[in-house]
Amino acid sequence: MNSLLQKKYLDKKELDFLDSVLRFCQTSIRCVDCGIFVFDPEKEKLTPFSVLKDVSVLKDKIEENVDQKILKRLSRTNSEKRLEIVKDLGVVPLFIKDDFLGIFICLLGESEKKSIKDRADSILISADILLSLFEKFYQSESLKMLELFSRNSLNQINKLNRSETVLELADIIAHDINNPLQIILGKAQVLLLKKEFDKNYLERELKTIEESADRISSLAKELSFYVKQARGQAVPVGDLGDVDVDIGKILEHACSLLKDRFKSKGVDLELKVEKDLPKVRGGPHRLECVFLNLLLNAKDSMIQKGRLKVRAKKHRRCVQLDFSDTGERIPLDVLPKVFDPFLVAPGLNRKLGSDLFFASQVVEEHRGTIQAKVNQDVNTFTIRLPIKEGGA
């Protein structure tokens, strides 16, 4: 079987596409280098198929660390996906049906090795994406570019992007939980030390503690939702399904989560929501994830200081949202491809491609549109969502 999977059977467009997928995987995993090595059953060794950098580096690493014993274990048929950690290498065996194809290998730097367990999902998902391409290569010697990529692979990218977003949201929410927690601890300590107090004072203090506890509970539920989403687990229908959504409230909440992040970078975050904004139909948490995605995108694009204006207004039969930032300018040649899941834009701080692909997918699911434009030094992402039937 592996004899079919040779570069001579693929044209330049297909090989370039494979390299772009590898670059996407490298960016997602944040590894030094990655590549695919195909198993040669006659020589019983791994041979390089496609790598990003100097093939000799990964080849030497394999020869030094992946001996026959490890190779035999890797090639043993196993339907369960697994990640093998061999010194500074992350290795995932690739199978088509029950045939051992080879391995997807990641070379990690010193800092990356310490967090390899946190990167396991990203590595496994990247291996799945690459394997889906190889399955296509195997089925046909010559494929058109668009035929290479199955819907399942797009879903895997979606899942990978959600995993990356959840890590950042977890950090944000953990920080946000600290504020009400400190209030609860402070109030409790005062009450324990105070020997006498009147009924009204006690009620006020207990009310503050109750409100802070409710805030922590709400944040914990929110984080649980995002984690379940990233893992593909079931969530309540109301969180995903067709319910009335107050866009203004969602925007206010998303901005409140990130206000400290923007303030620490000297970024002026300005939110303006039109009065009596009509409601839309959809999933509130999924829409908030899109808004957080765009807010974080703008934050990352501003090295130090800047301005982000968020506007929500009615536009004909839609609610229109504009996210306008003065951060790093999106190059005009990149602009038409910002929602392409495999876009790689070296040198840009702003996250494009897979991050924005996720946002575009959610907006499309809500029968809306999302566009990006650049006007002088301002980058603007515009979302339009249809208002619910019977809305003003």
Layout of helices and strands:
Blueprint: H1 12-29, E1 33-40, E2 45-51, H2 55-65, H3 68-74, E3 84-86, E4 89-96, E5 99-107, H4 110-113, H5 120-139, H6 151-193, H7 199-231, H8 237-240, E6 243-245, H9 247-264, E7 267-273, E8 280-282, H10 284-301, E9 306-315, E10 318-325, H11 354-365, E11 369-375, E12 378-386
Parallel strand pairs: 7-9
Antiparallel strand pairs: 1-2, 1-5, 3-4, 4-5, 6-8, 9-10, 10-12, 11-12
Helix pairs in contact: 1-5, 5-6, 6-7, 6-11, 9-10, 10-11
Query: Which strand-content bin applies to the residues?
Result: 15-25%
Q: Report the mean per-residue pLDDT as an integer.
A: 77
Q: How does CATH name the architecture of the largest domain?
A: 2-Layer Sandwich
Strand order of the largest sheet: 2-1-5-4-3
What is the CATH first-level class name of the largest domain?
Alpha Beta
Fill in the CATH topology of the largest domain: Beta-Lactamase
> Structural class, from helix and strand content?
alpha+beta
Measure the end-to-end span: 62 Å
Q: Report low-confidence residues grouped into runs of 5 or more.
A: 1-5, 141-152
